[in-house]
Amino acid sequence: MATATEQTTWLQSWLDAFTELQESAPAPAWLKKLRDAAFARFCDKGFPTTRDEDWRFTNVAPVARTAFRAAAPAKLAPADLRKYSPEGAKIQLVFVNGRFAPDLSSVGNLPKGVTVAGLREQTAQHPETVEKHLGRYADQERDAFVALNTAFIGDGAYVHVARGVVVEQPIFLLYLSTQESAPAMTHPRNLIVAEDQSQVSIVEDYVSVGGESTVLSNAVTELIAGESTTAHHYLIEREHLKAFNFSTLRIQQGRSANIASHSLLLGGGLVRNNVHPVLAGEGGECLINGLFLGTGRQHLDNYMHVEHASPHCGSRQFYNGILDAQSHGVFHGRIVVHKIAQKTDAKQTNRNLLLSDDAQIDTKPQLEIYADDVKCTHGATIGQIEENALFYLRSRGLNEAEARKLLLMAFAEECVERMHEGAARDHVEKLIRESLRFMEAHPHQAAGAVTERNWTETD
Amino acid sequence: MNLLEIRNLHVTVGGQEILKGIDLTVNAGEVHSIMGPNGSGKSTLAQVLARRDAYQVTEGSITFDGKDLLEMKPEEAACEGVFLAFQYPVEIPGIGNTYFLRSALNAQRKHRGQDEMDAMDFLPLFREKLRLLEMDDKLMNRSLNEGFSGGEKKRNEILQMAMLEPRLCVLDETDSGLDIDALRIVANGVNSLRNPERAMIVVTHYQRLLNYIVPDFVHVLVDGRIVRSGGKELALELEEKGYGWTEKEAPQPVGVRS
Predict the structure, then answer these.
(1) Residue B119 — φ and ψ, nearest 5°?
(2) Contacts of residue B108 in chain A, CB cutoff 8 Å?
(3) Which of A264, A381, B5, B101 is most buried per CB count within 10 Å?
(4) Which value, in Å, is the radius of gyration of the alpha carbons in chain B?
(5) What is this structure's pTM?
(6) Residue A433: Cβ-neighbour burial (10 angstroms; 0-12, 13-18, 19+)
(7) Is residue A143 predicted with pLDDT exceeding 80?
(8) Which letter, b or e, does each residue of A409-423 get, where b requires 16 or more Cβ atoms within 10 Å of its Cβ?
(9) ipTM given for this complex
(10) Contact between residue A383 and residue A408 where contact means Cβ atoms under 8 Å apart
């Protein structure tokens, strides 16, 4: 048990960081109130432990015992960006060490009725647009990391799509962290509001620049989708293997809204991916799709919390994991069907491939059903590359490495096929190919021997 | 010349001896049929030729075109020209038929020091073979064998064989589960590949296939040994008298004698 002194020391560094933020980034009264309440909540609750059911398989002690400071401002040239930017990106906001970098960003020709801006800038210029939604949905009571993000709300993306407007081009959000000499943190906060009958795609992409250092990215995205709105959200984590990456996507769906969340965990040392859609209007559909590829000693945790809060809604969860070396994957699929949510149709599938004896997966469905006329199914599989399939491919002349890569790509492709065709999917597919090439080139990589991945390797 | 030379081959699977001393010589241009009851070791022999490593060779040798086949990995045997048409072709979702076949063909061409074949050269050849096997072009845009009927899978095996042009074709019960129309199509595809440079080993349980693919030699495999060899008329005799007849005339297994 922690002594009172240890407890104080632990809090002191967060208090110092919080005080520093209050002084350096003054906020309007409503935002200050939101931050203060969240910080109080965080201090009160502290970091979760593995005794907490939601965190049973993920130990956040390495984060809790590190004294982080806000990442220092850094300057990057457009040329530095080239190797990370997706091909064909027309709309892209770039954030360097948690700060919006307008000079590196480009919004192209946005359709009328669309706002794409930095959150801090938007808060300063049009506070009412932000105040209306910010912090209303993400659950800081339950989740200490959401509380922490809210306390440290700095910058992020603000996207507003007016009623009936279709944004054809995906909006790419690129978060770069540079190498730091001391543990550094960022708390990206994104607010996406898509009004009734609109359509938008958002790609959050987390990247490390330069060598490895201890960095924490703790992001929260609130995505509010109106009636009959279609939205696709992509999360890409491809930081170096020393990075801590926590992210929460909170989706609020209106009537007949059709939303997809696609997660792709490739990088990061300790990663927690929370996806929390609330189907709050009748007839809503939600696809929760993901792929996680672990190697080295990566720990990749996917925590799904799908809330059916209205009748006649459907949700589909599909997560595929490929784990090599000593990596550890987690899939926690919680489905809550409220009493009112009759005729719910919820499905959950988690499939895993373990490529080494030391790789590990914990997969856990958790169904809480309070309505009496619903259909909920779940299933999980854990296996290895099928020897039969491997032999079949080799018997036609493909060498073992090629045959394995082909089989892994086919397994990953199941997730890619659920994404809409276009620049976002092409980007994701390219990253998966590079990642699998890396895994096959460094099979069963021993812990610590994995260094920075070069994401720009091409055929 | 001898394309394939099997000498005193003993093979165990999971600790159990399945092949107990096989001798077989196959020359280029010849078609050999291996017949035998279930469990006699026919499929084991086919899989060993394709170099499946679950099958452990405890004794004997296999020489293919003067090279030690037992030293080869499955992909090396394939590149040297050994092709196994599987009894149960594997379904692999997510890998496109066409993409796979072109990758395999190019892997083999690379091994032989030939240039890779681009889509422009590949597709006309591919379409020609599709017509030969009376296959629907649409199947080729699907995943490898996924959702194919039994007959479609077997035709796809022969299609791959026709594209890869191996020197030794091993057909493992390619006739099983086929109706007479599919059987004719498959046999027609196989016969079109017969030529003086290429040899075939046709493994089958029934004589029916041999009406369409007429072998030069027939060997009867019982309990891991070839108990009888002869011309194509042997197959007819077997059909008439059943495998029991050969077993009675077979030399007693060593284990029983002692």
Answers:
(1) -60, -35
(2) 397
(3) A264
(4) 18
(5) 0.87
(6) middle
(7) yes
(8) bbbbbbbbebbeeeb
(9) 0.93
(10) no
Enumerate the residues of chain B whose CB falls inside 8 A of the CB of residue A389: 90, 92
Q: What is the CATH number of domain B2-257?
A: 3.40.50.300
Percentage of chain A lying above the pLDDT 90 cut: 85
Buried b (16+ CB within 10 A) or exposed e, A192-209: bbbbbbbbbbbbbbbbbb
Q: Which residue from B96, B24, B100, B32 is spatially nearest to B62, judged by alpha carbons?
A: B24
- Band (A5; pLDDT cuts 50, 70, 90): low
3-state secondary structure of A34: helix
Domain extents for chain A? 4-441
Report the distance separating Cα A37 and Cα A138, nearest Å.
Answer: 14
CA distances in angstroms from A278 to A42, A137, A368, listed in the order given: 23, 9, 14
- Looking at residue B137, what is its pLDDT? 86
Burial class (CB in 10 A: 0-12, 13-18, 19+), A94: buried
Q: Is A409 on the interface with B (CB under 8 A)?
A: yes
Q: How many CB atoms lie within 10 A of CB A304?
A: 25
* Interface residues from chain B to A (CB-CB < 8 Å): 50-52, 54, 73-75, 77-79, 83-84, 86, 89-90, 92-95, 100-101, 103-105, 107-108, 111, 143, 160, 164
Residue, of A24 and A206, whose pLDDT is higher = A206
Helix B180-192 / helix B119-132 crossing angle, nearest 10 deg: 130
SS3 B217: strand
The residue among A388, A369, A386, A385 whose CA lies nearest residue A377 is A369
> Which of B52, B75, B167 to mutate: most A Cβ within 10 Å?
B75
